[in-house]
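User: I've been going back and forth on whether these two constructs are worth ordering. Before I decide, could you fold them both?

Assistant: Sure. I'll take them in the order you sent them. The first construct and its structure tokens:
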Amino acid sequence: MKQFFKYVLATITGLVLLFFIFFIVIAGMISSSSKKETVKLEKNSVLHVKLNYQINDRPQDDPFDIFTATLTGDMVRPVGLYDIVTSIEEAKSDENIKGIFLDVSMLGAGYGKLSEIRTALEDFKTSGKFIYAYSEVLYNQSYYFASVADSIFLNPSGTMLFNGMAADVTFMKETLSKMGIEMQVVKRGKFKGAVEPFILDKLSPENRKQISEYVESIYGDILSKISKSRNISVDDLRMMANEVKVKTSDDAVTNNFVDQLAYRDQVMAMMKSAAGTESDDELELITLSKYNSIVHPFGKSKSGDKIAVIYADGSIVSGKGQANEIGSDKFAKALRKAREDEDVKAVVLRINSGGGSALASDVIWRETKLMKGVKPLIVSMGDVAASGGYYIACLGDSVLSMPNTITGSIGVFGLYPNAEELYGKMGLHTEVVKTSDVADFGRIDRALNEKEISILDAMIGQIYEQFLNRVGTGRSLDRAHLDTIAEGRVWTGTYAKNIGLVDEFGGLKEAIEIAAFKAGMEDYKVTSFPKADNPFEAIFGEMGMTSIKNKWMKEELGTYYPIYNKLQRLKNLSGIQMIMPIEVEVN
């Protein structure tokens, strides 16, 4: 026994020592990564735009990514959307920047974010400076982004496929049925199909109609921009996609999608010449992260006046929320702090959300109402601002989106699982003692009865009416018109602008400029809310543990991870929900 305790004590001591060493290493990495690197911008430099990471509106430094980067020797930090756009704008007039190199083999953004960056690149081209794009693989999304370039180069052994756009929807009714679970639904809005993956095996006619319309709207916007850049008619682009005219690298050149097949070193040599660099000298490429550390356009302001950008990204939930969630307590507090801060003269609410809890959405909405009349509140929509995401947007003094932003989805639903069959399979039995027929309302081991369904229906109806009233008041829309555009229907920004849900097209940068104009400011700083967690909390806190779990699950499940993620979200749903009709993958 003495020997046993000796080994146990040695093991515990070893684990404590290992944890202590790990702690010191992580602390050292965080300290070293936070030190500002002195970056010198050389003459005849080329801005290297490589977006092979998940692009967030604000940069979210994941400590575990820092750890991986340290091991690989690659300490390039992800750059947030706003910093990407402002860096490109700064490069336009920077005499040391001669052009931009778009490295587009992999992209980590939806069409909304890519459109904002692409718009900034279109403006950059008016300077007369060059933009070269290079890729080893071109697909619909990457080609849309690359098409803004003056010259597009594809690796001779690379591939390109131009075959149109599709939206994928995964249905889980059969899977849940095999598990012994039936989903019970009460909703308002015939287009409100967020529940469809759980209760149907295929799209309803209403959902098929709206998905077809917004996919076509996004596709049409993409084709029109490619057409303008490449001087190929939209009709010809549609024909070539339908007939799959471009499926090899040679096809890409023949059909004017790509200017030349070239290896990376050959593209570097051509950029040397374009940048005015001697052939014997090394091409001066500067990454976005390094260039951004030099310029910080608004960071140079000496003014004490600020514009607060509040980043609302993820599902809307009650409480503080996890990483990549919009917790009602956390975001209501951020709005309140911005309203009460005398240095903050205007607020931009940046939304990337398909919605979530109705209660949580209303808690955040209340803070936007308190902001009205106190300070300008400008709403900037990213890839999606739908359902609960639109609920918290509707009081903006100005609401901006991109043409291919997904928005609207004014509808409500309640979703309750019935696991009676599962309980039977597992041999579980529940006895309930209650004081009324509906005292055990919400139990998952039996189906809802008619009385309970009527109760839920009344609750859903009340919240739907409240949703309509919020939007009608915020957007000055009469009820008759609102009834024609609600019903849970999803719209692209193009349609949303025409029907009064959006005021104008523009990205985060334009939203900040409008906020400054409404506040009467020319010189100001931009500050971000909510404040990011400190690095130690990010690693050792609850969100850090969640980050570890999610990374592991992504690695293990691969392409099946989205299904797991949807089931996790289903498990965490509570109360009445405002979520966009269906989570689709648009390819």
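The second construct, handled the same way:
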Amino acid sequence: MTSLEQFLSKTTAHLTFTAQEKGSKPCHELLLVALACVIWLGLTQGMRPLSVPDEGRYVGVAWEMLRSGSWTTPTLDGLPYFHKPPLFYWITAVSIKLLGPNLWAARVAPMLGALLAILSSYMFIRRWMSASIARTALLILATCPFFYGGAQYANHDMLVAGCITATICFAAYAILAMQQGDAYRAYLIAAWCCAALGLLSKGLIGIALPGAVILLWIVINKDSKSIPRLLWWPAPVLFAAIVFPWFIEMEKQFNGFLYYFFIEQQFHRFIGSGFNNVRPFWFLPLALVALTVPWSPLLLTRLNLPTAPQPAWQASRTLCWVWLIFILVFFSTPESKLIGYILPVLPPLAILIAEGLTLQIFWQKAFSYKRLIPIIIAAVLCVSLIIYLAKNYNDNYTQPLAEAYAAQAHSNEPVVFLDVYPFDFIFYIHVQNPIPVFYNWNNPAILLGDTWQKELLEASFFASTKKKAILRARQDFSTELCAQPVTWVVTLQAIAKGTPLLDSAILIAKTADYGLYRFTPSDQACSTTDKK
């Protein structure tokens, strides 16, 4: 017997054994998995400051929601902010309310998204492939540096990735249960609910991506009879009940919201070229391989795998390939590409690698030190990544300035921004009111870029009465400061040096780029014309 024949013989026997594992009770395993993941992902969650602009922006919006008590309208510096739906802000605001305004609470939403991805994919693979593959996939996914980092990055990407993963897994579970004559409607309801949460997390991709993956999978499997049953009427009704109220309420309050949200922020951003992060087509596949080391090279273990022992197993394998390839191609198509977009492909990648590993001879043994090598390397890489980021944050980080202002400023001493808007400052300072931003807002070039200026200016279109108080004209900077007994100014140090009025201001705190200045009016200072 050749070595290949021996391998196929042993793996076929292993397939038969692992297929029988489905009879064991999975409930206690799900609880243990959830607890272990919370501990593992939470270990380094508060180790590094908020990254800017993304983490500072979105956590700041959640803080404003909590501060204002308005749970329907997300605001950026007091102005309606409709770049993203509200689910992330709701979760983050609640976690800050319960746990306090700290970094751990600020990152609960992505951790919940990661937990949803892990548990839904674990449950699906345990039922339709094997418990051994499910456990291996769990280890791979949880210790994948890309996934680990995404679970601790406070933006919408991991949350919607978790919703997309759960929608695909529950919908596929329902379809396979239909085919075997098992109860399926509970899983179908769960799929539609997760799709609704995906839409409330980041918009249309929350339903478009899982819908396309499931539809393409159905077509490949020639199972068109499943489609009408997926549309069982209580499921889409529940979907509408979850999604529609917020969108209807926002359109009622802000005329033109639906066009702005769906056309400008969803459709135009996908097909447009005027945004940041323009990359070639091959960028995301290459990034995926690099960011999933040491696991990605082990995809080669799928070479010479035997035929799946059951149709449902083979269908699950096909689903993972469709899921991985379709989403990767989808996000590689537009010119603008962000790494976080492809977080939804990590669960199927982990499953495919896990299947290859589980069916290899060295992974089938009761215990083998060979198993520990990639796990240890991956875990060390995960923690090392967070430690590195904690020690090498970028120069736009403003926590030291916020802490200095909170410690030294009196309650009646306002703070203003000059030609800058540091997103994280709002959260660190726990500000109770919007902060005026002095800038040349009449510059028509603002709307041509993808900048903080454009975000604030577009937000002001939905709140014209608030615009004048928050977006201040640059030429009024001197007049405003000289009218107050004390004003604190946050700006770039380079800008402060080019602003004559601030020559007499005291530099209280600084980072590499930013400075916090305390300005007290004097006859000499206020008689100097601000020429900036």
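Notes on the second construct follow. The radius of gyration is 26 Å. The longest strand covers residues 487-492.
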